[in-house]
Amino acid sequence: MSERHSRLAAHISSLGSATVLCIGDIMLDRFVSGSVDRISPEAPIPVLRILRETSMLGGAGNVVRNLVGLKARALFLSTVGDDTAGREIADMLGDLPLVTPMLEVETGRQTGIKIRYLAGSQQLLRADRETVQTIADDRAAALLAGIAAHISQCQAMILSDYGKGVLTNDVIRSSIDLAHAAGLPVVVDPKGRDYSIYRGATVVTPNRKELQDATGLPTQTDSDVIAAARHLIDTCGITNVLATRSQDGMTLVQSDGTVTHLPAEAREVFDVSGAGDTVVATLAAALACGAPLPEAAELSNVAAGIVVGKVGTAAVAAHEVVETLHHQDLESSDAKILERDRAAEQVELWRRRGQSVGFTNGCFDLLHPGHLALLRQARAACDRLVVGLNSDASVKRLKGETRPVQTEAARAAVLAALQMVDAVVLFGEDTPYDLICALRPDVLVKGADYTVETVVGADVVMGYGGRVVLAQLEPGQSTTNTIRRMNGGQG
Fold it and tell me: Which one of 161, 277, 392, 422 is the catalytic residue?
């Protein structure tokens, strides 16, 4: 795994030590699934033959589901009605591990229910049943008392605002004040047009439309999003903005002027329901564990890319994030295998950045500890390491008709997957002399079984001021010896 991905994976493994306080609007998400085989004779609409019905926590409840999936602990506060849906929500929360629910029941309030009708993975209709009004003052006071009593147990706060009335202006203001007093970062999934009510928040996470509605500014291009985010920071007293942009990924704009664009994870999108919940849950949990904001945002981007590939209001699991990071490494390793001209361009780019470039070469057939020792020493002698790899035809000429054991594609893929290798370039000649002339490395590395005088290309490298390094070899390690042992001692 690459150093960056290893660091991100380490944050995921530490989420079990985090406790996140979440407050917001909770509702039930119902899914009525079936098949459509005909059009109704009564109207030009599909007839859904219902096969199953399921329910899960929605709204801020889905934030909690994501926290649990990430193995973080959650202290959850919200208000429900004194009705069947409210009791169903209470039961669901009670069944979740790692969650401490604190639900206030308000008589006369209707617990929100969103019913989605699906045929296969296609959503046909959504029907909502809910009360949209601010909660009573005594319920708000009870929520704030719960926060004050338990905030010392937490390391981050989420305000999940769906505009249904739980997060009144007073609740928002007092919650942020309590978080500041406790030294907690505050992550807000916002609603409405007036973001000044979130003044003091560590980060808000509007989507593209929400950002446009809140600022009155366009949000189509990168520069548009940056300008709108900076407007929120300057006028609303918000510290950072993480704008989610669907197929364009995310943009993190920090109050110090730093801008980070995170490209969307490439995958087939089935349903974007709940992706915003995943973002705020992952972001807050990572911040709770001490992750820097840019890395927490990157983890959120990975997690969001996972849930949009699921059907329904989905939650992410910690192991899925780690698996995705591994998968990205496998994909990125392919990008390290370069043709000669492209490698020369990349070497020049590294050199312009002030980085020294090393070069070593070999057949690397059946990678063994001796190869790894050579590559580690080569990488230690430079900032970037290019490996010249003999082609299959070249290996056959050098080693005989029975070699190589692995094809050039397989050998290149294995080398490219190594963290200490920055580029792999195939060459078909018997020696890498022409490749060395094309790349002009600063450091040329070869095994100590050579002398400087016998290293191919040493005269070229030393001629323009480069240096030659002779790496210590691992005794007894060679592909030939390995093959001989596999053949029972026969060469």
Answer: 277
Instruction: Read off the tokens for 181.
Output: 């007093």
Q: How far apart are the first and last CA of the chain?
A: 36
Q: Does the bond joining 404 to the residue before it have cis omega, within 30 degrees of 0?
A: yes
The span from the CA of 330 to the CA of 328, in Å, is 5
Burial class (CB in 10 A: 0-12, 13-18, 19+), 264: middle
CB of 425 closer than 8 Å to CB of 379: no
Evaluate whether 226 touches 260 at the Cβ level (below 8 Å). no
Is the pLDDT at 94 greater than 70? The verdict is yes
Mean pLDDT of 11-38: 94
3-state secondary structure of 242: strand
Q: Which residue has the higher pLDDT, 268 or 351?
A: 351
Q: What is the mean pLDDT of the chain?
A: 90
CA distance 410 to 418: 13
- Is 138 in a helix, a strand, or coil? helix
Q: Using 50, 70 and 90 to split pLDDT, how confident is the model at 269?
A: very low
Query: For residues 99-134, b (16+ Cβ closer than 10 Å) or e, as one string?
Result: bbbbbbebeebbbbbbbbbbbeeebeeeeeebeeeb
Structure tokens, 263: 């490209």
**For residue 51, which amino acid is it?**
L
Phi and psi angles of residue 236, each rounded to the nearest 5 degrees, phi first? -115, 0
Q: How far are the Cα atoms of 48, 50, 121 from residue 34, in angstroms, in the given order?
A: 6, 4, 10
Question: Cα separation of 284 and 157, whole Å?
Answer: 7
Q: Is the pTM of this model over 0.85?
A: no
User: What is the C-alpha R_g of the chain?
Assistant: 29
DSSP secondary structure letters along 369-382: HHHHHHHHHHHHTS
Instruction: Calculate mean pLDDT across residues 439-459.
Output: 94
The answer to whether residue 449 is catalytic is no
For residue 395, how many other CB atoms are within 10 A of its CB? 23
Angstrom distance (rounded) from CA 394 to CA 390: 6
